[in-house]
Amino acid sequence: MSIASSFITSALVFVCAGTSLAGVTEKTREFRPLEAKKIVIRPGAQVSNQLHSEVKADHYLAEAWSQFDAKEWTRAMSSFVSALEADPECLEAAEGLAMSIYHTGDYASAYRLGEELKVVMPNVRRILAETALTEVRGLVANGDFAGARAFLAHFPATGPTLAYAHNLVQTADNLTSSVGDDEEIDLAVRAQSESFARN
After folding, report:
1. Digit-coded pLDDT (tens) for 146-177
2. Any idea what DSSP says for residue 46?
């Protein structure tokens, strides 16, 4: 792990702040990426100057996606955080932040962010799980079962998508042990993947 990667890992701290004073059922989440900024996500919160906030959020989002497309993950994270500061309910910014963290290789923090947001923004967790499954399918298709197991160590077997990813690797391991022929393993794994894709 590089020094920059370990810095990002240690600097990205996600803290659950509990229930907001605005309402009994309203949850507040605080995020302090790189400890430089603070974001508070409040479902249903009213922004005093909503139009200004939306324009500002759109500006940061455009900047963030440009950086994301250029694979400048750290800069993209900062811009997504700024978009969330401008609009704490911006699902697109939360998804982009989670995927930027994921692409830095800090899978545990990306998953933790998805878990923190699962009540107010469930798509973040779903997108992370589907991305992880795609990664596992590629590793298994290339015969890198050890790499798939190491990658999945960052994700629990919770929810149907991640449970399926863990099952896919386990099935590939079992087939390797019992059959031993690469061609038969490939056929079995492809059949299982196609079966999941149809369901």
Report:
1. 899 999 999 998 889 999 999 998 888 777 76
2. P
Q: What is the pTM of this model?
A: 0.63
3-state secondary structure of 28: strand
Q: Which SS3 state, helix, strand or coil, does residue 89 take?
A: coil
Q: How many angstroms separate the CA atoms of 36 and 182, rounded?
A: 50
Nearest Cα to Cα of residue 110 among 123, 128, 131? 128
Indicate the domain borders of the chain: 125-199
Which H or E element spans position 130? helix 122-141
> What is the CB-side half-sphere exposure of residue 161 using CA atoms within 13 A?
15
Q: How far apart are CA 47 and CA 50, in angstroms?
A: 5
